[in-house]
Amino acid sequence: MQDSSSSSSSKQIRVNFNLENLCSDFGLREKISSYHFNNHDEIRRFYLQQGPCQSFLHKFSPTNFFGKPCRFNFDWYVNRNWLEYSIDKDTVFCLYCYLFGKDVVKQEGGETFVTKGFKHWNQK
Prior knowledge:
The chain is low in regular secondary structure. Helix content is 14%, strand content 11%. The chain has one domain. The chain has helices spanning 40-50, 95-100; strands spanning 63-65, 68-70, 83-86, 91-94. Strand 3 (83-86) and strand 4 (91-94) form a beta hairpin. Mean pLDDT is 77; it is low at 1-10.
């Protein structure tokens, strides 16, 4: 009979870190894949509990599109509980695309809402 303490291969190894130190601004976040594999679910749960980073008080900067100034409008958050705005990058991202990666990044635009961000404010 095998001693349960010697069967360490069946135990999961976790790397300790403080969830509160995870960045809320999507544009500054590390990819989940950059963390230890055994922490991925814990990180996903944390971000799901926090909800999307949606700034309502920020003064959104205008961007010129064909000579017309356009900017992000916080009304776009309505019915889009997945939409996150990065103040640092002045772009929007998809919370669920970030959390679940290849499982949900099959939509049109692919990695746009995960790594690059979307900034074409003239397209609604």
